[in-house]
Amino acid sequence: MRNKNYNQETISEGIRAGDNKWLSRGITLIESQLESDKTKSSALIESLLPLSGNSIRIGITGVPGVGKSTFVEAFGSQLTSLGKKLAVLSIDPSSSISKGSILGDKTRMAQLSMDSRAFIRPSPAGNSWGGVATSTRESIILCEAAGHDVIIVETVGVGQSETLVKDMVDFFLLLMLPGSGDELQGIKRGIMEMADAIFINKSDGNMERAKRARKDFQNALHLFPPAASDWTVPVELGSSLEKEGVDQMWKICQEFKAQTTESGWFEQNRKLQQIKWFHQLISQRLEADFYTSASTKAKIKKAEDSIFTTQVSVRNAVDSLFTCQNQR
Fold first, then answer.
1. What is the mean pLDDT of residues 42-61?
2. Beta pairing partners, 61
């Protein structure tokens, strides 16, 4: 849905009224790369910012094939049955060749997508690092302004750079498959260190194997330094397909929020996330400005030719480029 026929005031009013159609239009606006839309999206975000913050933000990630979408549907249905208003921001990987994304999460969450208390928005990751779309943080603001009190960010999958999602959610859930410890070899230590809970999905197939996996993860977690939140990371077993253990994960989320709110860490963490986002936007703006300069483009092309003909090393080419920039 193109937004050129709607100004940001109209979209803002629709979002404030809790209308998911206007929420979709608002997210489309802030995802737009058109210069004419960027001013509108900034104004929209500023108008809705005072209404944001009244939710718990949950990041969900996991190894390929772990059943993220199935878990999100089961978990989301549990939340809406409790009267919660849920928003799911699902990030689909973009092709490095065609730049396209399937955006099929509404198909994978057929039941939840029909729930009137749920809003599902798939977005392409594009060229962004971290397994999250560039506009995900702003999308969270819009969803909260629309009255959604639980925000789920479903990420692309486990990867070294995907840890950026930790900087935009309150609670980070890692989904794993049952096994005898093989998972510890296939997952980055950094993601395990940032997990606030681990859910071993598909445990109904082999409970003994799942229990061994839980023991392995618990032992591994003991080797990590204490979390800044002073929260002890639980490892739970369950099956999202059979809806086993899913309700326990919501109880854990509530316990986490209660404990960290009482200690003051919950609010402090959100403030620190804003500062990190501020610096990330500075870096993005500097990079964009750098590459849009006509003189810089010419110097980069000249440096590329020198590298291609092995006249200069990559390091020296970069040093030369920035030396020229600093002399301007």
1. 95
2. 174
pTM of the model: 0.86
Give the C-alpha separation, 261 to 178, whole Å: 32
Phi, psi of 67, deg, nearest 5 = 95, 40
The amino acid present at 121, given as its one-letter code, is R
Note the pLDDT tens digit of each residue in 180-235.
455 554 555 677 888 999 999 988 877 888 898 899 889 888 888 888 899 999 99
Specify the pLDDT at position 118. Answer: 95
The Cα-based distances of 127 to 56, 98, 99, 132, 285 in angstroms read 27, 12, 8, 10, 15
Q: Is the dihedral of CA 73, 79, 85, 91 positive or negative?
A: negative
Let me know: does 157 contact 179? Beta carbons within 8 Å. Answer: no
Go through the domains of the chain in sequence order and give each one's CATH number.
1-51 (1.20.5), 52-262 (3.40.50.300), 278-326 (no CATH)
According to the model, what pLDDT value does residue 79 have?
A: 97
By CB neighbour count within 10 A (0-12 exposed, 13-18 middle, 19+ buried), where does 207 fall?
A: exposed
Under 8 Å CB-to-CB from 175, ≥6 apart: which residues?
A: 60, 61, 62, 63, 66, 67, 68, 71, 198, 199, 200, 201
> Which two three-digit tokens encode residue 41?
């999206």
Closest CA to 150 of 241, 238, 81: 81
Q: Say what the alpha-carbon torsion angle 247, 137, 272, 255 is, to the nearest 10 degrees.
A: -10
Give the model confidence (pLDDT) of 52-101 as tens digits: 999 999 999 887 788 898 999 999 999 999 999 999 998 765 443 334 34
Measured CA to CA, the distance from residue 280 to residue 218 in angstroms comes to: 33
Q: Which two tokens stand for residue 120?
A: 């599902």
Helix runs in the chain, H state only? 8-16, 20-31, 35-48, 68-81, 105-108, 110-113, 136-145, 183-186, 189-194, 207-222, 246-263, 265-292, 294-308, 314-326
* Rounded Cα distance, 255 and 230, in Å: 13
